[in-house]
Amino acid sequence: MTSLSPLKVVLASRNAGKLREFSELLPEMHFVLWPPHAPDLPETGAFFQDNALQKAEGARAWWLDHGGSLVDGVLADDSGLCVDALWGGPGVLSARFAADLPTYRDRNHHLLAMLPEGADRAARFVCVLAFAPMPGRWQGEPFIVSGAVEGSLAFDHRGEHGFGYDPIFIPDGYDQTFGELPSDIKHTLSHRARACAALRIRLLAGRD
Ligand code: ITT
Question: Domain extents for the chain?
Fold first, then answer.
């Protein structure tokens, strides 16, 4: 089996930036969006892995009771930016960091201002994906795959591509931020692209 088509998967996320990236990174998958009337999915774990599994399993349980259509599984993403000088933060709390500020531009400036002058600017984006198969449609237990990209923090918010922390993250080997680089470059090296590549391999192996 060389294709994931026509795998039908519920994408357990309300993050519009992630949704756009998944449809570009896994174009052969048919994604069913998490319905507006469905509950928010708790993410109370201490690690990306815990939260990705919690979201995938929570969404699968809800879908089994309330979902309208037959799907092969549920996919959830827990991800974030880990900054060495902030002891790995905001990390698993990336979505909640400075959430009282109105825009990501404000939140990015706030994060950059937390770094002392001369601080180590090393950082990485991490993405953990959890896939929960639907009973009767796909065999096996829920599993996780992950990806990361190393880089450093810019000195200012730069560029309008991408979402979230992209305008302050410079991947190693580049001078531009993910906010300045076009999405096709981000998709060759990002944390989510790497996790999606691992997911594809794992799903193809399970299809034989
Ligand atoms: P869902 O749980 O509904 O998927 P969320 O935004 O709450 O959406 P997370 O808990 O995984 O998702 O938080 C991840 C945060 O990390 C996200 O809100 C962004 O701020 C940031 N992030 C993750 N991947 C990113 C990327 O590729 N580019 C920029 N920021 C990213």
Answer: 7-207
Give long-range contacts, CB 8 A cutoff, 24+ apart: 97-104. 104/163, 104/164, 104/165, 104/167
Q: Is 177 in the pocket of ligand 1 (CB under 6 A)?
A: no
DSSP H or E segment with residue 64: helix 48-66
What are the pLDDT digits (tens) for 7-34? 999 999 999 999 999 999 999 899 999 9
Which residue, among 119, 26, 8, has the nearest Cα to 67 in the 3D structure? 8
Fold of 7-207: Maf protein (3.90.950)
163 lines ligand 1 (CB under 6 A): yes
Reported pTM = 0.96
